[in-house]
Specification:
Helix content: 10-25%
Distance between the termini: 37 Å
Number of strands: 6
Strand order of the largest sheet: 3-4-5-6
Largest sheet: 4 strands, antiparallel
Radius of gyration: 14 Å
Number of helices: 2
Length: 123
């Protein structure tokens, strides 16, 4: 399935499958060119994310999540969304600003959380 959209993301590709779900991703590298390959996993590999778009306020949220004890392996906005979901659940949508689409697969609960849209600085 990722081969069909190779023209949309020529820089890298990634796939995760666990018998209950499959995530595929093609990447056009813009942020964290060396470390932003996807899917990205949280610290205990219980959550996986694929993300497309741009998050405008990822740097201050990243700092906040580090203060809360999260460990980052990349400098990508994608990983901020993942750890934000891990920390705040669906309420992470009230904190992030940008244009994006993403899915997070909860490997233990076999639950998928997906979002697409735009969040601006307006309330």
């Amino acid at each position: 399935m990722t081969d069909v959209i190779a023209h949309r993301g020529p820089d890298s590709a990634g796939v995760f499958a666990d018998g209950h779900a499959a995530l595929g991703f093609r990447r056009l590298g813009i942020i964290d060119l060396d470390g932003g390959n996807q899917p990205i996993f949280n610290e205990d590999d219980s959550l996986a994310i694929t993300f497309n778009g741009e998050m405008y306020n990822y740097r201050p949220l990243r700092d906040q999540l580090i203060e809360l004890g999260h460990t980052f392996t990349t400098h990508s906005d994608t990983e901020v969304v993942l750890h934000g979901y891990e920390q705040w659940g669906a309420e992470v949508l009230h904190r992030i600003r940008g244009m994006f689409a993403f899915v997070i697969w909860d490997i233990k609960a076999h639950a998928l959380f997906g979002v697409w849209g735009e969040r601006s600085f307006r309330n």
